[in-house]
Amino acid sequence: MTLHRELRHAFRTLAKSPGFTIIAVLTLALGIGANTAIFSIVNGVLLSPLRYPEPDRIVMLGTHWKQTGRITPRLTGGDLLDIRTSGQIFDAVSYHVGGEMGVQIAGRAEFTGAYFVNPEFFAVFGVQPSYGHVFDSETQAAVSFSFAQRNFGDPASALGRTLSIENRTYQIAGVLPAGFDFPGRANVWVPAPVKPDNLNRTSYNYRTVARLKRDVTLEAAEAALATIGTRLASAYPSSNRDKSFTAVPLRDQLVGPVRTMLYLLMGAVALVLLIACTNVADLMLARATARSREMSVRAALGAGRWQIVRPLLVESLVLALLGGALGLIFAYFGTGALVRMSATQVPLPRLNEIHVDWLVLAFVSGVSLLASLLFGLTPAWQASRVDLNDALKQGGSRGATGSRSPHLRNALVVAQIAMSLVLAIGAGLLLRSFAALNSVALGYRTEGILVMYAHDPARSLDQYIGVGRQFENIFTRIGEIPGVTGVSAAMGLPSGQYGSNGGYAVEGKQTFAPGQRLPQSDFTLSGPGYFAAMGIPLSHGRDFTPLDEYGKLPVAIISEALARQSFPNEDPIGKRLQCGLDSVGVWMTIIGVVGDVRQDSPALVPGPNLYMPLKQHPYRGNEVQVVVRASVDPGSLTAPIRERVRAVNPEIAMKFTTMKTMVSDSIAQPRFRTLLISGFAGLALVLAMVGVYGVMSYVITQRTSEFGLRVALGARPADVVGLVLGRTLRLAGVGLAIGLALSLALSRVMTTMVFGLKTTDAVTYALVLLAVTPVILAASAIPAWRATRIDPLAALREE
User: Fold this and answer.
1) Residue 423 and residue 31 in contact, taking contact as beta carbons nearer than 8 Å
2) Parallel, antiparallel, or unpaired: how do β-strands 168-175 and 140-143 relate?
3) Are 181 and 113 in contact (CB under 8 A)?
4) Interval 281-317: pLDDT, tens
5) Cβ neighbours around 396 below 10 Å, total
6) What region, left, alpha or beta, does residue 494 occupy, with left being phi > 0 and alpha being psi -120 to 50 degrees?
7) Which of 390, 479, 541, 739 is 20 to 30 A from 412 via CA?
8) Handedness of CA 213, 215, 219, 222 (dihedral sign)
9) Which residues of the chain have pLDDT under 70?
10) Which ranges constitute the DSSP H helices of 480-616?
């Protein structure tokens, strides 16, 4: 029989059993669709090359600390200059400084990604503008395609228009191609000095990208950078003694933070596919058992084992292809849903490059073929092992494979239960971890706080001081709005942007002498009333006041963690310290101690924090986060605040959020993976229930005569139900034991993903077992109920 005829025969055979076919195809489609959707993301984010010319030659340079092995993805200005002037490794080297900031356009302002880059930046990426040219003077700028469209309609019409950053006007010279937004969703690029402003070798201010020369491999570049590091360590022992330099492929640097999460999701959906395949294998085995007489007749007529196996394998292939086709449809919509979810919850890198392409189609084809082998080969081989004497007996209800298939069917159900338990325990750990993350004490309040990011352009010291006074006027106006109970500002809100940290020195204990190791702390600039607005308790001393301004006695407030770190068993009030935020050498008098906060993320233990008055650090005070404490819905205050700010200065860029949203965004990745793993675990459990239901239904069918005889001899319905549930419990017990062992063996994979508990947490394991076991027993409840409804006379007549 040719393949064409066998395919036609397979379609006809499957069409005669629509219930079986629909269940099998849907089961496979769910498994293949989930795998394809996640693979589309993995392919777009991790596997596909970056969309630049020769992307493998683009690297990001970092500082490698020899003693700890830690890598800082930034360079100091002095180190950057030495690496760039070596001229032996790279065709182009460029640094970039910036982020989301206020940009003024035609009398209005908006927050957008704006970066200062040196002239070699575009050469590193090999990018050419779609319109115009890259800037060739310090008064020109380049903008993204989307920025030009949004602000000027036709991108070409953006050429020659002007924009302003920090009171400096730039003329738009080029519009870059659609999709180019490096780094970090950038929209505006303006010239930075060819030589970095800060050549200090202890300030790691410069993120640096470079393009390798064509004849230089990554390994050769690493070796050359190590040589430079050795030379600089000898030349500058006080600053470079413990460090060298490294080159990391840009793609690896971009996707590093999400790599583990995506591989975890890929592993989870692979388990779902395996469960789906075992489920369909179970159905196929039951179907092969029911067709045992057909197989025996073929064998009696001289058919060889391959001739018996081949039609069943072709049926398996047809089911897999149908499941793959439907799974591709599921994957198309699932991928879109995941991309939308990511855009709002956890911004994945390269999000605009995620789509279903030829590689994804090849993946679907490969998975479908693999699935056909996984679920089709064993049942087909089992069906080919016919026993003619048993199978051809009139009334042989068990069939030719009946004596062997129960053990195989039981093994398949045990595997389903074990794999679904592994996913359920993983989901349980993530759910409990996320619950702990949401309930942890932050050290500040999140309810009823509106946050306004505000940027007012300034360049000179007088302008910066004037901006501070202007913000004071704005705060007064905001405080007059009904429902506002407090207003202040900060630079470096918890869970927000613009965080800063570094070393500090306590008078009489440390100095900023070269080579000295200093205690570390987060730095926050804040205005009067900030701690009250945020609900951070002032445990000792006083808050900042409007009199703590530039030119007056420098003061600071420290957190309790910093007090414990640097002033154990002593009163820190009146002590002095300094840090390198603005300049080294300014001693600040400690005037207060406040409670600890989880500064960067709820997942991190509160660390030392050094608070300084905004007005005493004016060069940092023109871009602030305004904290508005409200007794009404914070969102209702956005419009009146915007009106009052624009009335004072229309060139102030604004964007709004809430403290609650900022905290939620800071734990977006744990939430994203928890939702997906929980969804996959639920799907796996449903498939396992279907598998248990199928086995128990098959058992009831095979043992109809036995159950009929038991009922005829006086067995009660409870006795019959006990027989069925007892078998289920035995299978479940074995499956759960294997699943527990596998979960414990794989627990290390999730070590960095859980918060507040261990990956071997006994409570989680117990709760999951208590939840899964009744669900599995429920799957056999309907077959058990059917067994109690068997008519003894009809069953005995059938025998």
Assistant:
1) no
2) parallel
3) yes
4) 777 776 665 555 555 555 555 555 555 567 777 777 7
5) 16
6) beta
7) 390
8) negative
9) 1-3, 286-309, 344-347, 371-372, 374-406, 408, 514-515, 582-584, 695, 697-715, 717, 719-720, 784, 786-799
10) 530-534, 560-566
Alpha carbon distance 456, 400 (integer Å): 84
Give the residue carrying structure tokens 């070409």.
156
How does DSSP assign 733-783, residue by residue? HHHHHHHHHHHHHHGGGGGGG--SS-TT-HHHHHHHHHHHHHHHHHHTHHH
CA dist., res. 562 & res. 40, Å (int): 46
To 10 degrees, the CA torsion angle through 643, 647, 653, 655? -20
354 in Cβ contact with 45 (< 8 Å):
yes
Query: For residues 705, 711, 717 and 721, what is the CA-based torsion angle, rounded to 10 degrees?
Result: -30
Q: Are strands 555-559 and 538-541 parallel, antiparallel or unpaired?
A: unpaired
CB 275 within 8 Å of CB 688: yes
Q: Residue 212 is which amino acid?
A: L
3-state secondary structure of 103: strand
When computed from its CA atoms, the radius of gyration of the chain, rounded to whole angstroms, is 34
> Per-residue pLDDT tens for 387-433?
545 544 544 444 444 445 567 677 878 888 888 888 889 888 989 98
CA 351 – CA 353 distance, rounded (Å): 5
Asked if 75 contacts 206 with a C-beta cutoff of 8 angstroms, the reply is yes
Query: Phi and psi (nearest 5°) for 89?
Result: -115, -40
The residue among 27, 28, 29, 34 whose CA lies nearest residue 266 is 34
Q: What are phi and psi of 772, to 5 degrees?
A: -75, -40
List Cα–Cα distances, 472 to 468, 469, 488, 546, in angstroms.
6, 5, 9, 9
CA dihedral of residues 548, 554, 560, 561 (deg, nearest 10): 140
- What sign has the CA pseudo-torsion 586, 495, 595, 622? positive
Question: Position of tokens 């977006």?
Answer: 668
DSSP 486-509: EEEEEES-TTSSS-EEEEEEETTT
Q: Is 580 helix (H, G, I), strand (E, B) or coil?
A: coil
* Structure tokens given for 253: 């640097």
Report the predicted TM-score, pTM, of the whole model to 2 decimal places. Answer: 0.78
CB atoms within 10 A of CB 499: 15
d(CA 683, CA 368): 19
Phi, psi of 575 (to 5 degrees): -75, 160
